[in-house]
Amino acid sequence: MVQKTLVGPFKQILTMNNLPDKGPIKDNQLEIIEGGGILIEDEIIAAVYEKKQFDEERKHYKKKSGDKSYFKVEKDAVLVPGFIDSHTHMIYAGSRAKDYARRNAGESYLDIARKGGGILSTVKKTREASFKQLKQLLFERGLTHIKCGITTTEVKSGYGLDLENELKTLRVIKNLKESRSLIPELIPTCLSAHVKPAEFETHEEYLNYILKEILPIIKEEKLSNRVDIFIEEGAFTPEISLKFLETAKKMGFKITVHADQFSTGGSEVAAKVGAISADHLEASGETEFSLLKQGNVIATVLPGASMGLGMHYAPARRMLDAGLCVVIASDWNPGTAPMGDLLIQAAVLGANQKLSIAETLSAITNRAAMALDLNDRGIIKPGYLADFIAFPCSDHEDIFYNQGVLRPNQIWRKGTRII
What's in the keyword line of the UniProt record (predicted)? Predict the structure, then answer.
């Protein structure tokens, strides 16, 4: 039997419907419904009502005393789609607080990595952690995310870097996803090509190992349909990355790329291979923007990494003006972006880059869904998942004006109110 629930009224509903997929968005392009509500059928949005329609529907539900299928919003509330975090490294063990202190004392990210810190120090801790321990850590981080209004989050492997431990981390993600825990829906990505582990002599040798030993099992067990690689000095060069990604794509994987964080080259690879997104882009310029646009590649910017490293933000304003689809993600990871707070990062980046409210919100809802190739969320409209969040305010501008301090106090994930 279909479970129907009427929810509302809301002071405002920002549907994020009928917005351009690329380029700038003006605030007056936002579709805002005042005093309306939502009809949920099981996990899906069945209808989005204007005020007059909603008032009529509410009368029907109110005739049944104590009918739990009608949920009244008691205070002024602004409803928006659930946030989508399209780039995280949330499954790991250990801390990199010492790396943070060393960076603040003047050492560079690359120098710390060369001296035994960085990604490989997290690999050691993650390999030592059990399946149960990693599951608990990911669950706790998922709870933090859902309380911030994130209803879908991507999670990368990449701290195992061998067959046993890459499979362990991806199996943890799959196990939690299938348990339907009240955390965000987890979208797994294989980032075995994060850096070269010490047990391999050459980068080419390690990438061949991933292609021959790791990816076939990931495909067989349906642990992920996405492959990523870190193209950067100290990680993998553009030339060998392109060959690796072309082979992974032929195996049936969708492609995303860590690109242009400290130096350029990754954007060109992303465009050549037809990646869904290129992520980071702090070093990108007009040449890279043109390549990404020609390749129809989404530009995902990661302000959390800039905060953690004390470096400039990716040029999101220029990217939008160049006609790109710009997405904002948290990059939650133990080394460079340990905060993991998407709303704060989006608000701060928006102020720094002079992004409109519409551009900022779109970058963590409907456009973020595109970065994960998901066409069933990120918009409040009939037929989409009933993933939405309500903020205790009367105007949507308050959400970013408060720079992340204002939190959602009502959260629905797949039609179920969990907060």
Answer: Histidine metabolism, Hydrolase, Iron, Metal-binding, Zinc
Residue 63 is predicted with a pLDDT of 62
Mapped onto helix, strand or coil, the DSSP state of residue 413 is strand
Is 263 in a helix, a strand, or coil?
Answer: coil
Mean pLDDT for 207-236 is: 97
Structure tokens belonging to residue 338? 């340990």
Residues 222 and 325: their CA atoms lie apart, in Å, by 29
pTM: 0.97
Distance CA 342, CA 348 (A): 10
> At residue 235, what is the residue type?
A
Full set of structural domains in the chain with CATH: 4-81+378-417 (2.30.40.10), 83-371 (3.20.20.140)
Helix (H) or strand (E) holding 343: helix 342-353
| 170, 190 contact by CB (below 8 A) | yes
Chain length of the chain:
419
Chain segment 232-245, per-residue pLDDT in tens: 998 999 999 999 99
Q: What does the H/E/C string look like for 10-79?
A: CCEEECCCCCCCCCCCCHHHCCEECCCEEEEECCEEEEEECHHHHHHHHHHHHCCCCCCCEEECCCCCEE
